[in-house]
Target: Glycine cleavage system transcriptional activator
Amino acid sequence: MKMSKQFPLNALRVFEAAARLGSFTRAGEELGMTQTAVSYQIKLIEENVGEPLFLRKPRQVTLTEVGQRLSPRVTEAFELLQDAVASARGDTETALLINSTATFASQWLAREIGTFQLAHPNIAVRLAANDAIIDFNKESVDVAIRSGTGDWPGLVSHRLMRVEFTPMLSPALAATIGEVRTPRDLLKLRIIDPRDPWWQLWFRAAGVDDSDLAGRPASRLGAQAFEARAAVAGQGVAILMPEFYGDDVALGRLYQPFELRCSDGHDYWLVYPYARRNTPRIRAFRDWILGKLNPGELAGQR
Model:
């Protein structure tokens, strides 16, 4: 039997797009096809498989159990085909699209990514920094750096860094009250973002149960990195991850008055779709960043 009859590649491509986008209409827009043509191709692949792959509902389609099993394998297959064709064409550069939280991007990734590019000169890195959780099915992103517990359905996740936080401030600000001797002394100063739940966790762990942070003026700056800059400028006490601000400590711009650090169970993770786990550029970045931050996790991938 001919390969074209055994493997309807055009129909599989349509199925992959419809499954990823959750819509026949959007799949048609992406592929330059009418909705009728998309429906026809889906019907062909369903006849080939011998099972329905989608549940048709008004203005919505969802994958059946069979479709859910097939979808990640088809996506992975097309990723491998794309890489094989690029290699056959002799393409010398491929792009790796990274989405990262703003703080991790500015305080670690932007400073270290050059070593990855030196090791992989054929991979062009594109970095987008924001704290929104992106949808891999809707956005052109290869990997993401997220803060959380590591449990995201359909994604492979690797812990990069434990998140532990503690108050930090400028020595000049501490001098305005003489000295910071006890955790309660911090309440004599302006607290940057007093609504941040990290503050409540830290003060309780430090034995201060009546911090009354809710009564203080809110000052949401949007990212830990911005709060750190405000603290360096002497505008208040920020609750930060000390690992990110070693340079500021060494230069005397920030200091950590207490050894106590806390965690809320949310760490930094590298995530990417399970179906794309064998894509060469994703594997290269995974091995590099785990080698830098969590070699034990990397050893488990070998």
